[in-house]
From TrEMBL:
EC assignment: 3.4.17.19
Gene source species: Sinisalibacter lacisalsi
Protein name (record): Metal-dependent carboxypeptidase
Keyword RNA-binding: no
This protein's record includes keyword Hydrolase: yes
Length: 492
């Protein structure tokens, strides 16, 4: 075998072990007994040690040095690029630090869930402070003299920088705030959907929706979790959702969102299975898939017309009497605390808040003990509403409790990518709404599958979006889409 073949055989086993680690995380968030958390923390730490040892195995470094990248085809070169990037990063992090991070973050998930349920940030703060300290150590090791936050961001969006994102977000903020103010001040305000909605019927509907958007249930499943997520790649890709008897839109749109993530993973070329190319290339690109499924498609007037009829079958008559009123209710702007339940206009403002606060924590400018006060002050300044409890504030998201610093800004980057993709898709598919009005998202998912999903990690994130859209990504298509849509919704 060639050195490249040796490397890829070794990598295939590593990828398989990473899938097992992901399955442990899925189990912990869905069906694991609560009392198993201490043991699961040890299991996660042990597996982390194994994976870190494989990622930093000296043989990987030797293979990388001995392989002539010019002799490989584009797939081989891309595999090499990913493995080299990971090897360079992993060899900078001491194995003891990697294991401690895995142990602490696995244990903290349960502590976060309990603190969230009890609205007790003070009780969780010491655990979060430990995580932040460990992430600072990791960031310093990875940065090698560069910006520590950029080093963490690179895990989720290779090639991006905080400065670049800050400039993009600065361009987003003024038009988003202006649009929000116009909408909330509009004379016409849509009626919200109210009532009681059977949760078993919601779960049945979520599975139907996942199938409608192309999710292959033969290689996946839909379960419930405190915080909806997607897990896995290739032949085993699972999604979760959550239900509320008074908010069926929460279940519907969290499911469609996670279906976007899952379809990306399921539609990657099977030739890339258990290789570095066999998963989404970045969280920004991943989020572009979930957000375009959820918003531009799932909240469109065409699709909500079809969904309205499905709601009538599932839940009977509702307080919104027709499809147009239902469309307006599904897109209604409303003051709210929860990022995942936010409307399209205000969503990015939630992300910008988290981006700024987590950068300050990693930089040492914000102590964890002061996080709740800083969050509440920033939220009231941005949204004009005082936070009433910790579960509506700095305890609402699971991300920091599991060490995902650098992750939040990819949500807004994904929205920007989705805006670019939707503009291109609409131009190339003039009959798009006719398909969505029939609940048929097959042609849409095929377009995204061809342009984005099948490539997996073959291209770098920005290159992938540029290839799909014919131009480099920027924030203008997203802002133009939002202003046009909400002007129509609110009769501005």
């Amino acid at each position: 075998m060639s050195h490249y073949d040796d490397l890829m055989a070794f990598e295939r086993q590593t990828q398989a072990l990473e899938q097992i680690a992901g399955r442990l995380g899925w189990d912990q968030e869905t069906v694991m007994p609560r009392g198993a958390a201490p043991q699961r923390a040890e299991e996660a730490e042990a597996l982390s040690h194994v994976l870190h040892a494989r990622h930093t195995d000296p043989r990987v470094g030797e293979w990388l040095q001995s392989i002539d990248a010019a002799s490989l085809d584009p797939v081989g070169q891309a595999n090499l690029r990913h493995i080299r990037r990971r090897f360079d990063r992993q060899t900078r992090v001491p194995v003891a630090l990697a294991g401690e991070l895995a142990r602490v973050t696995a244990e903290s998930q349960g502590l976060w869930a309990e603190a969230r349920a009890a609205d007790d940030f003070a009780g969780f703060a010491p655990t979060l402070a430990r995580i932040v300290a460990l992430k600072r150590d990791e960031a310093q090791a990875l940065a090698a003299g560069g910006d520590p936050y950029d080093a963490l961001l690179d895990d989720y969006e290779p090639g991006a920088s905080a400065a670049e994102l800050e400039a993009m977000f600065a361009a987003l903020r003024p038009r988003l705030v202006a649009l929000r103010d116009r909408v909330l001040g509009a004379e016409h305000q849509p009626e919200p959907l109210t009532g009681k909605f059977n949760e078993k019927a919601q779960m049945k509907l979520t599975r139907d929706l996942a199938r409608a958007f192309g999710y292959d249930m033969a290689h996946g499943r839909v379960d419930k979790a405190v915080h909806p997520f997607s897990s896995g790649s290739g032949l085993d890709v699972r999604i979760t959702t959550r239900t509320s008897p008074t908010d069926p839109f929460g279940a519907v749109y969290s499911t469609i969102h996670e279906t976007g993530h899952a379809c990306y993973e399921q539609n990657i070329d099977r030739a890339h299975l258990l290789t570095p190319l066999g998963q989404g290339v970045s969280m920004g690109v991943h989020e572009s898939q979930s957000r375009i499924y959820e918003n531009q498609l799932g909240r469109s007037q065409a699709f909500t017309g079809w969904l309205f009829e499905r709601f009538r079958v599932a839940f009977g008559e509702m307080n919104v009497a027709d499809a147009e009123s239902f469309w307006r209710a599904a897109n209604r702007l409303h003051p709210g605390y929860i990022r995942t339940e936010s409307d399209e206009v205000q969503y990015n403002l939630h992300v910008l808040l988290r981006f700024d606060l987590e950068r300050d924590m990693i930089a040492g400018k914000l102590a964890v003990a002061d996080l709740e006060e800083a969050w509440n002050a920033r939220f009231e300044a941005d949204f004009g509403v005082a936070v009433d409890k910790a579960s509506h504030g700095c305890l609402q998201d699971v991300h920091w409790s599991v060490g995902l610093f650098g992750y939040f800004p990819t949500y807004s980057l994904g929205n920007v990518y989705a805006g670019c993709l939707y503009k291109t898709m609409s131009a190339e598919m003039p009959d798009l709404d006719e398909h969505l009005a029939r609940g048929d998202a097959g042609r849409v998912t095929a377009w995204l599958g061809e342009r984005v999903q099948r490539h997996g990690g073959l291209y770098e994130p920005k290159e992938l979006i540029t290839r799909a859209c014919g131009k480099a990504p920027d924030e203008a298509p997203l802002l133009d889409y939002l202003e046009e849509k909400f002007a129509a919704l609110y009769r501005l």
